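hiii so um. not sure if this is the right channel but i have a protein structure encoded as tokens and i wanna go backwards to a sequence. like what aa goes where. can anyone help
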């Protein structure tokens, strides 16, 4: 499928390590990159303690329009209210 799209890079979250097969990507000459979200800022979640190992949907539903801050804005030092 990825070759049909001329892809040479696949970026995946850490949870996919449970079922993705890196050797298949290597056979197709596709670089597989694993994201690590542990350094991202915490946001209010319904049930503490905070868990970094959730989907982007968790962030979107908990923070709404402030979600971009938790993905990108914190790197610039700007607050979500800026």
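sure thing!! here u go:
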């Amino acid at each position: 499928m990825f070759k049909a799209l001329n892809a040479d890079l696949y970026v995946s979250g850490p949870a996919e390590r449970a079922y993705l097969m890196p050797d298949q990507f290597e056979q197709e000459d596709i670089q597989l990159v694993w994201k690590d979200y542990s350094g991202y800022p915490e946001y209010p979640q319904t049930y503490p303690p905070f868990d970094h190992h959730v989907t982007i949907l968790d962030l979107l539903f908990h923070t709404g329009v402030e979600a971009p801050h938790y993905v990108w804005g914190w790197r610039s030092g700007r607050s979500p209210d800026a």
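oh and The longest helix spans residues 56-63.
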